[in-house]
Amino acid sequence: MDKKKKRPVDEFPWQEYDKEEFKEKYPYLAKELDEGAELVIEGYRTKEEYEEEAMDFSGYNPTVIDFIRRCETDEEALEIINWMEDHGEITPEFAKELRIKLVKEGVRSFGSKKEWGWYERHRKR
């Protein structure tokens, strides 16, 4: 039997495989599929759920991102970035990356706003 020449599109993951070809190409995955999953995922966390988890802040030193998340506007965030760079708290390279993200995506791209009392509400008791 003549095998037809495969095209690049034939390598996409949704293609159908002959069972033996699949076992040959992906032996460990085939074994997992044959034996069944050992790990069962019953759910996942969303970003908001993760942020709401209680944390231990003793000895925690806020990062530039923590300060940016306190800002209301892009202009305030830019002031924070400039100040942190001028005072040697962040590198010029990192400051540039933060500015680019700020211009392209806005202040909320760094995370939800941290209101007054955020650390008290999110600490382990």
From TrEMBL:
Classification of source organism: Archaea, Methanobacteriati, Methanobacteriota, Thermococci, Thermococcales
Listed name of the protein: DUF2095 domain-containing protein
Highest rank taxon of the organism: Archaea
A Pfam family this chain is assigned to: DUF2095
